[in-house]
């Protein structure tokens, strides 16, 4: 695993951070129930067999939200489904042999996860033709409070764009909810939100690339059965690390006889070789600096740090992308053989695009370390820019540090999202468990990053790459479409990284037209910028309508 990946993972965990009066947003039905305890100890029956660790449960309510001037009445369900771990013993042959040779009942209860979800079904429409979209954030270890309360749920929290949002927090009916085009299921990952894990070696069973893909695949197939949605057009919407999960699930679901109509990626990271690292500790890996450069340039453009600032951002970024993949990439590849005169020329071009001084860029050996740009761009003002969204700024906590020590966007909006959700889930959805809601859990250091791509006979000892999974799924299901979305001001998963990843997707030419790209003048969570929330909603709703045949 990469040496300085922690900051990147913290940023991803914070991602993917809606809510005013619940009068029209959600009204509890008279028969709404308090869900059963979400976490309970395993007990043994008279025969000595271990009973289930968890029991599924739900609370039901109804509501109405107006989108595009049209009122949409919906049923809301907040509940849990219980999923079981993959054949986790097989990941370690020594342990597998030991487990198989013992009495499994004595080895302890098998690992289970109680996965929390909120589902919204439009009333009065046939489920067989109604699209259904499963949405999740990433982390790894993040709940899905961000997409649920910031983007597409029937209510959303109002936050101040670009700076800290103070209490009291405002919640409004969400006129950009995706209920106009699809039923919605927001899912919390095992261990996060109201989801919990238990059983023998539970962390090993659920905290890993392939383990996580399996758990979500199990959840989706159970959900389709429970709510009779097997015939519906089906979509996945993943944000941040959730895009890795979604891409991996396309193939996993196919193996479970589930064809998807589409997969929607927001702020994608499908190949972790593109993740940045400290150039002093991981020399020779240059692609992360190439794909991050356009985002640095977009940020310098936003803060007017460019000498001859172009009027149009997209035209400017096309120029930066060209430089990044030609002169800049060639200079990085040359390494120590780069002539001094060429090094000086490249540093000057970098300075013109990023607003950073030439002497600083020469000292960095033309490689801007992850977190350094955020610290340096406004350093003379004592300010640090955001990582998830560089439009956000905050005080520099340590002026002598080399890289940023926190993300101003997370500090600016996190409390508002959680306060809004805590009120909404209990008072509107009537879901009142006796466990705490965990917006995120710090599991990145425990995460199992091994992934077994199609064609491999065992998990790879490398950073995960799910491009082969997505490619295999597209070739087996040529009708599945892919929508790629990103923000120009996102350093954690730079928009150009997404472009470069999909450029290398190993599919034939006739399938490349199944992929479309949409980029916005916002950050990682593009929906926190109100104008781009409208654009994102319209683009995603249009994608679902075009690819599902929905009217």
Automatic annotation (TrEMBL):
UniProt keyword annotations, A-Z: Signal
Pfam families associated with the record: Peptidase_S10 (PF00450)
SUPFAM superfamilies the UniProt entry points to: alpha/beta-Hydrolases
Q: Where is this region: Disordered?
A: 24-57
Among Gene3D superfamilies, the record links this protein to: alpha/beta hydrolase
Endpoints of the signal sequence: 1-20
- Extent of Basic and acidic residues compositional bias: 36-46
What this protein is called in its record is S10 family peptidase
Q: Which organism is it from?
A: Sphingomonas limnosediminicola
Task: Specify the taxonomic lineage.
Answer: Bacteria, Pseudomonadati, Pseudomonadota, Alphaproteobacteria, Sphingomonadales
